[in-house]
Design goal:
This is Glucose 1-dehydrogenase. It is an enzyme of class 1 (oxidoreductase). It comes from Solirubrobacter ginsenosidimutans. The protein is of the alpha/beta class. The protein has one domain: NAD(P)-binding Rossmann-like Domain (Rossmann fold, 3-Layer(aba) Sandwich), CATH 3.40.50. It is 36% helix and 19% strand. It has a 7-stranded parallel beta sheet with strand order 3-2-1-4-5-6-7, with helices on both faces. The longest helix has 22 residues. The two termini are 31 Å apart.
Length: 233
Amino acid sequence: MLAGKVAVITGAGSGIGRATARRFAHEGATVIAADIDLENARETCKDLPNATAAQADVTRREDVEALVATHDRIDVYFNNAGVPARVKPLAELTREEWDRTLDVNLTALFVAAQVVAPKLKPGGLLLVTASIIANRPRPGLSAYVASKAGVVGLAKALATELAPDVRVNVINPGPANTPMLEGFGFATDPAQALPLKRLIEPEDIAGAAAYLASDDARAITGAVFNVDGGRDL
């Protein structure tokens, strides 16, 4: 389904990014698996066909420029890297925590859009991971909610501005079975808030990403795909 496509995937050292890199590679794409931790990115690429590990901090423009300079054209840029925010009252949230959350989760999409859009071939895809929490906020996560709601709004704006040459779509995961989940410090099992009563698996998100990156989704832009176990109902 993705044969011949070139895809850059950030946050590819674990979780959703790792599962997506593996799915894309097995479906025939050439994959640049980027992560701030190069060793984790290399582990992702182990035994994969046509996959290359790269180190990148998605908040740094020069790092993103280096990622897309690896090939003459890019078909898919999956802005997936993100950071959690530990549950805490608004009054205890520091400015440093706020800035870091917004920088990685939201500003990185702005940086990517400026750098990557000119490199995407006509019909190319800028894909971003947001979160169902943008629609269904939880208390104690103000910075995280703001960052993910901002991602959805920015992606929709980009979908109109970059059309018709570039498609822009969002995946909204529900609570996912990834290393990042522990970083929130939830007091109760978040799966119990989902109608399906199970965490989202990284492979669930990878499947949605593969569809959106395929030619079957060539008419889809500005979409927000919930892969959330029914959390948004």
